[in-house]
Amino acid sequence: MKQARRLDNAPPYLFVEIEENIKKALAKGVDVINLGIGDPDMPTPYFVVRKMAEAIKNPIYHAYPEYDGCLEFRCAVAEHYKKRFGVDLDPETEVVALLGSKEGIAHIFFALVNEGDFTLVPDPEYPVYELATALTGGVPYHMPLTKENGFFPDLSTIPKEVIKRSKILFVNYPNNPTGAVADLEQFQKLVDFGLEHDIVVCNDNAYSEFTYDGIKAPSILNADNAKEIAVEFHSFSKSYNMTGWRLGFAVGNKEAISKLKKMKNNIDSGVFTAIQIAGIEALKGCEKFVEGMRKIYARRRDIAINELQKLGFEFEVPKGAFYFWIKVPDGYTSKSFADMLLEKTGVVVAPGRGYGEYGEGYIRISLTINDERLKEAFERIRKLGI
Ligand code: MLT
User: Fold this and answer.
1) How far is Cα of residue 214 from the mean position of the Cα atoms in its chain?
2) Which pTM was predicted?
């Protein structure tokens, strides 16, 4: 069977490939330690599960959900934004519920990008920005994120003819995979650039609650005039250990949100209302829970810093998110190193090339594993003697 040309342009999803490799290793009896995907190893907080158990019994929630998310959920998001970021949002026009942030991220490309348009995407990047560009027939312009530029795009190097034909600029701070965190000044630069060139600026803020060393991540909507051009995506997956629930939201510029809603309304029928009701509970009780999670990741981060230093690996200490972006030793590509680690140690890591050209020469490890297994992973790598 022939597939649509747009699918030819899309590479297999990075974590589907990794999952295949894990299945093969498990079938051979390997004791796999998965430092690949960023899937929290701890359960959804009990107060959220309890609310879900209650909500699911209510037949009112068994019908089609409201397309844009129920008003109660959108109001809770607006309240959360005011409390956490000091930003006012109109729940009617500036908030939409998502089936996980990945869904909304992909759909906003479909809502804004025509065939042949440029999209400005970071490199390395969360693979969905690239895949969504490919599926819309757009052309990605890669903005390198390097150690030298502090893992922040240098907007002055983007050619004028690319800027003219660009519809969307995507960033992701706190950053996956590099761990960089943008400050307000950096967000302001992006917003000013978007306003000057009429390019919608999107920040994927899935890791907003995971920052270290006293840093608190801002929202891009904190920048002056941001709501005139910017949209921000959030996920319940990482902050509240809810990857399986598929819940997120997008907020910001009402025109862009309305186009995203139109796209979504024609494709999906919204998020199961009982899940939104549970999500409201997560937002209400989040502060204390998230503080506990942040401490756990900070502890694992210290373990990883210590172990990586002992191993002599080159890496940046992450300021945010829960990943380490690590240089592979000489003589390896990101893939050959990841493959070798799985084969010889049973440790799964994400090869940097899966995040773009500038990811070559790196691997990403995720801290979503308990301290003992994390230490064991490093111990197995140490025994390799590289
Ligand atoms: C990651 O591990 O980077 C992602 O969160 C996984 C995903 O969203 O597919």
Assistant:
1) 22
2) 0.96
